[in-house]
């Protein structure tokens, strides 16, 4: 491949490890990179680290995980209710006119029947596992979006280099055409055409500059982090496009969104069972000491509420509906996810094949451009043919750049669908 057909390569910094690496995707998301850390550049791996720390969706998902620990902590004790202590004291007038003291002290402990506390514990564990799986799934999707936005920004920056080079070439063409026009070799219309081509090239430069700024702002929005203007998002687009997709490790498990649905179904089933157990009355066992004047009594107590009206109807019906919904979503997802993986695989293979075809002819572009320039300078080619060749060369280079981006995006999407890497 000719030197002008390649994107500049640079040494990438050491990955920045995120505090949330233990969530499971970190080992796959952090690619090893040679070289020392360069604080002036933000590579794709650095962007991943920033997203895991600052992305709003991940901040919210982590908060939900912390909130889900509350029900589990509440269900952890052996008994749900605390012991109840009651104390009564009063004065009594005796038959002889004296005053006596009445005193009563009771201690009772409520007990739930039917394993209700265990069911609460089971539902709480499933709820926590569900939120943890949702956090992993949110990380998968957010980092996939970040990777796509980063790749489009790299594409825009490389396209800006292309149109800048085209604008410089158009300026040189105007100078060459002015010399030939002064010598009487070309008509005035050729000079006008050259100047129009230069103006179009400059307009494309302005558009590309605005696109780079806009895509940078969009990427920072996905990161949830505003970077300093001096720090550039920079990585090797071609290396990212040609990198093979990561395969799921042996025993890698189910994709996080499916795990979340499974845990949601388990939580709803436990809650529905708990609702059905509400028909079993809770009992309170206790002891009571009473002293009335000169008489002392020790009593054992038993309290049994009668479940005539509140029988867990709402909890049972809502939880059964939630379980049925989760089961339906899980059944549908088990069909949708393999189809998504297959579609992403087909798109990735097609993108890699198309990129290979473009890279085969990329060296010819250097030759065509150099030969056309020499021919035009020597007066062997008219301006229209020269501009046509140069425009075709620019479009071919832009197509190659689009092919790099398309292949890189297809690889990212394949890894997102397989749940390995965004």
Automatic annotation (TrEMBL):
InterPro entries, sorted: MdtP/NodT-like, OMP_efflux
GO terms assigned for molecular function: efflux transmembrane transporter activity
Pfam (any one): OEP
UniProt family annotation: Belongs to the outer membrane factor (OMF) (TC 1.B.17) family.
Alphabetical list of PANTHER family matching this protein: BLR4935 PROTEIN, OUTER MEMBRANE CATION EFFLUX PROTEIN
This protein's name: TolC family protein
Organism: Corallococcus carmarthensis
